[in-house]
Amino acid sequence: MPNNSSVTMFILLGLTPDPPKQKLVFFIFLIFYGGTFVGNTLIMVTIKFSRTLGSPMYFFLLYLAFADFCFSTTVAPRLIVDSLSVNKIISYNECMTQVFTVHLFGSLEIFVLILMAADRYVAICKPLRYPTIMRRQVCIILIVFAWIGSFIHASSQIILLLKLPFCGPNLIDHYCCDLQPLLKLACTDTYVINLLLVSNSGVICLTSFLILMISYVVILHSLRNHSAEGRKKALSTCTTHIIVVIIFFVPCIFMYTRPPTTFPVDKMVTVFYTIGTPFLNPLIYTLRNAEVKNAMRKLWNVKIMTK
Predict the structure, then answer these.
(1) How confident is the model over 86-141, as pLDDT tens digits?
(2) Rounded distance, CA 280 to CA 288, Å?
(3) What is the CATH topology of the domain spanning 9-306?
(4) CA quadruple 181, 186, 187, 189: dihedral sign
(5) What is the model's pLDDT at position 41?
């Protein structure tokens, strides 16, 4: 904790102060987090042990599932436990750690989505050069750079946040530690730091979203030269990716590309992209992807046969 802060802990107000609603929150998000855990773990295990899912697309999908799982885990378990707690206390160090991990795994998901778009671009627009360009070594290097970029982003956010003095009050009108609620509690002028913090996350979200949308427009435009069967398969894969991009980026852009202020709807928007999106992604990728479903069935049948 920095020397210029007298606050050693924060009190989270949660999603609702109403006890019956808190119990409802407990059961709803326990189901959501359970589904996130099972869905993303199933995808990671299937890709890891399946012989048919060895392409770069599924290599990146494995890391997307990992990022989803970790991203949700930084927020969901505490929300579930706090929904049954009278005093929702989080220490200063725990709060800063939560901010760091949320931005670490959130930005990792963004970079992995960009890599998945790049993979589809090469596969559809440069099919003859695809095996050469998207070699296993290249994919590993790209993932390493994604981790490095995520760490740099999260570190830059937390370093700026650690410089702020917190002298009281210590009530956070949220269910987790996030930039805007914490900036409101700082006992100093936060205009410049807020500009740096929000522009950092905002620029990453907005720029990445535009890059992804433009890349998928280019990919879809290039499909006119493919066969009907090839168009159908590529269109199904790209549609899945576009759905994931939209449901993740739209809430993030709303949160991080605006002036320093908070709205009542912020909590629900944060719920959507920190808990809802990691829950929906496995459903989207399994329900719309025949190869993943077939690989899961084969692995399940093998496990049953070996018992």
Answers:
(1) 888 999 999 999 999 999 999 999 999 999 989 988 988 888 899 999 999 999 99
(2) 12
(3) Rhopdopsin 7-helix transmembrane proteins (1.20.1070)
(4) negative
(5) 93
pTM: 0.89
| pLDDT, mean over the chain | 86
Q: Is the pLDDT of residue 307 over 70?
A: no
**Sign, CA torsion 207/213/217/220:** positive
Query: How many helical (H) and strand (E) elements, i.e. helices and strands, does the chain have?
Result: 12, 3
The answer to whether 182 touches 128, Cβ cutoff 8 Å, is no
Rounded Cα gap, residues 94 and 10, in angstroms: 10
Comparison of pLDDT for 19 and 56, the residue scoring more: 56
Q: pLDDT tens digits, residue range 201-232? A: 888 888 999 998 898 888 888 877 777 777 77
Q: Computed from CA positions of residues 181, 182, 185, 186, in that sequence, does the dihedral angle turn out positive or negative?
A: negative
Count of CA atoms in the C-beta half-sphere (13 A) of 290: 4
Rounded (5°) CA angle 75-78-80: 105
Give, to the nearest 10 degrees, the angle between helix 56-73 and helix 136-162: 20
CB 174 within 8 A of CB 185: no
Residue ranges per structural domain of the chain: 9-306
- Break the chain down into helix, strand, coil percent, rounded to 5: 75, 5, 20
